[in-house]
Write a structure and sequence with these properties.
RNA binding; Alpha-Beta Plaits; 7 helices; zinc; 35% helix; repeat
């Protein structure tokens, strides 16, 4: 029985724990959900909910798509540089959904769990663009499962209110520059090899 319960944990077969919270780190029902939202005590991934303010969602927005992308790229660079202060960043996902539980959510997965915890401890006392930052550990480990496949390949039929992540894409050149800068920094500081700790196993 214990083995069976472990095998269905966080899946749609699990009648106790919310599969959407386990997979996405957010649920449209919030505290009213009939299933449990089990918050992790340790994780490689952190969530800063509603942090990205997409100007395209503002009713009085006058920016064109190119200007909105420039605004997003600047935000993404800010986030990458801030998160990288705490440790090696593997992935950053910024949600472009419009549903309340996903709008502007920023997820960052670190190589090491202790670096994610350091980020949480620091970010919760910080502000960005005149708004306080809220940060928490997230159960999300596999963004391939969390991101909407329709949105990634074409156009999602559910639009911005889809319950899977609609990842906003950063300029590829900027992304490569940030990743190369991080690799160079890790190599120069010797942090690319850390025998005292190992990456968290996939769960």
């Amino acid at each position: 029985m214990a083995q069976f319960l472990a095998s269905i944990y966080g899946t749609e077969q699990d009648k106790v724990n919310c599969s959407f919270y386990f997979k996405i780190g957010a649920c449209r029902h919030g505290d009213r959900c009939s299933r449990k939202h089990v918050k992790p005590s340790y994780s490689q991934t952190i969530l800063c909910p509603n942090l990205y303010q997409n100007p395209a969602h503002e009713p009085n927005n006058q920016l064109n798509e190119s200007q909105v992308q420039t605004h997003f790229d600047a935000f993404y660079e800010d986030m990458f540089c801030e998160f990288a202060k705490f440790g090696e960043v593997e992935t950053i996902v910024v949600c472009d959904n419009t549903g309340d539980h996903l709008i502007g959510n920023v997820y960052a997965r670190f190589k090491y769990e202790e670096d994610a915890q350091k980020a949480i401890d620091d970010m919760n006392s910080r502000w960005y663009a005149g708004r306080p930052i809220y940060a928490e550990l997230s159960p999300v480990t596999d963004f391939r499962e969390a991101c909407c496949r329709q949105h990634e390949t074409s156009e999602c039929m559910r639009g911005g209110f889809c319950n899977f992540m609609h990842r906003r894409k950063v300029n590829p050149t900027l992304n490569r520059e940030l990743e190369l800068a991080q690799k160079k920094y890790l190599k120069l500081t010797g942090k690319d090899k850390s025998p005292s700790r190992s990456p968290s196993p996939a769960r």
